[in-house]
Amino acid sequence: VHPNVSQGCQGGCATCSDYNGCLSCKPRLFFVLERIGMKQIGVCLSSCPSGYYGTRYPDINKCAKCKADCDTCFTRNFCTKCKSGFYLYSGKCLEKCPDGLEANNHTMECTSIVHCETSEWSPWSPCMKKGKTCGFKRGNEVRVREIIQHPSARGNPCPATSESRKCIVQRKRCQKEGKGKKNREEKRKKSNKDESKETRQEGKGRAARRQNREQRENNNKTQPKKKKAPNKEQDLAPADTAH
């Protein structure tokens, strides 16, 4: 061991020196060389920094540099994120995507081209003109469909989502909204009037019956009782016997 090597190191180092920093790391930590000016210093980290990938060996775990166009990588030959200006495809960083793929500037990856997809056409609508279904002979009917899948940048664009065609129907008159409303209002008023009239008549009938009943009761109270008429047969019987 070099005289400058120390066993009492800080920051996860197993052995270190004043000039070169860490020379070896504690178990499970990764050894990596960091450049400071013209000098390289060894450090021990729990995971490799950006631009490096980790390799584990029985005696030491090291961080090795990714390729120049790769920002992060799993191994030297498999990149997981590319540097600016490159697109990721199958672990590689490319300046241009292969045929059949397109560059996604949001994820910086080469992705499959997506074409537009739509649903089936809906049934044709009723024949109409200016929003009405009456008062005309020639009108238009329409049908629509929905977009199921929007296209990617290089995908086929979506077709029209609505169609219109001429139609002919048997002309029929439109009921005037004002007149129909007026008729409904008049019917309602008439119905209310009839109900009110029936209610008044029924009330008058009850009042008249109550008044007649009270009148009969008053007459019975004020009228003197009639004397019972004598029985003519009883009055004549004694006279006939005397004669």
Distance from N terminus to C terminus (CA atoms, Å) equals 186 Å
Q: pLDDT below 50 for ≥5 consecutive residues: which ranges? A: 232-243
CATH secondary-structure class of the domain at 13-65: Mainly Beta
What portion of residues is helical?
Answer: 10-25%
According to CATH, what is the topology of the domain at 13-65?
Answer: Hormone Receptor, Insulin-like Growth Factor Receptor 1, Chain A domain 2
From N to C, what is the helix and strand string? EEEEEEEEEEEEEEEEEHH
Percent of sequence in beta strands:
25-35%
Shape: elongated
- Considering the protein shown, what is the CATH homologous superfamily of the domain at 13-65? Hormone Receptor, Insulin-like Growth Factor Receptor 1, Chain A, domain 2
Note the main sheet: 3 strands, antiparallel
- Supply the number of helical segments: 2
Query: Strand order, biggest sheet?
Result: 1-2-3
Oligomer: single chain
Describe the structure.
This protein is α+β, with helices and mostly antiparallel strands and 243 residues long. Among the domains are: 13-65, Hormone Receptor, Insulin-like Growth Factor Receptor 1, Chain A, domain 2 (Hormone Receptor, Insulin-like Growth Factor Receptor 1, Chain A domain 2, Ribbon), CATH 2.10.220; 76-112, no CATH class; 117-168, TSP-1 type 1 repeat (Single Sheet). The chain contains 2 helices and 17 strands. A hairpin with a 2-residue loop joins strand 4 (30-36) and strand 5. The longest helix is centred in the C-terminal third of the chain and has 46 residues, at 177-222.
